[in-house]
Amino acid sequence: MRLRLIIAQLLCAALAALGLLAAPTATAAPAQTAVRGGDVLYSASGRCPVAFNVTNGTRFYGIMGGHCGTVGTQWYADPRLTVPVGVTDTVVFPRSSYALVRYTNTGLTYPSEIRAGSQIIRINRAPQPVVGQQICRTGPTTGLHCGTIQSLNASVTFPEGTVYGLIRTNVCAEPGDTGGPGFAGDAALGIVVGGSGNCASGGTTYFQPLPPILSAHGLRVGYART
């Protein structure tokens, strides 16, 4: 049996050398067709995750962290900046911390879903957060982690100013996770603003609640699949 295997390997090598054995054809990666919460977008100045997709009934938007770019920032689906996705319309920071990216690429879809590792999670609602409830978050640095809401109406001070009305949790996060979605099952709860600690020893992470953003801009989650 071993002799036959060696002979077969030598024959394949000889045929390949003579150009008589076709090389395997590389298969191109499938083109991206959707942008979801948890996906990373890229600009000329860096990258940021989308927290949630929302709509006003006419247009679709992605909600990002308030530190992600300025009004007019162009976002792309790839780090080479070849697939445009949208442009930042609104930035609110400090006091609150979020940005709205107006999606412009009609060749992509923007479902009310988030990507958490290999999972695709449908987002149907955006309730008010409650102390003691579970909250999970996903981010490009450390992936999916869960914890508990410890308090509401917390505040965090940055060099640019203070952000108020935040959700305080014992979920861990690390640099690069900021701006990712916070959720519980099919409920969108908030956007990672920042915190302390790490995912090896634990820590405290703060979230910008989602309901006030939706109310201020006439937006909603849980719309029909596109």
From TrEMBL:
Residues 114-209 form the Peptidase S1 domain. Pfam families: Trypsin (PF00089). Residues 1-28 form the signal peptide. It comes from the Bacteria. Gene3D superfamilies: Trypsin-like serine proteases (2.40.10.10). InterPro entries: Pept_S1A_streptogrisin, Peptidase_S1_PA, Peptidase_S1_PA_chymotrypsin, Trypsin_dom. Keywords: Disulfide bond, Hydrolase, Protease, Serine protease, Signal. Belongs to the peptidase S1 family. This is Trypsin-like serine protease. It comes from Streptomyces flavofungini. The lineage of its organism: Bacteria, Bacillati, Actinomycetota, Actinomycetes, Kitasatosporales.
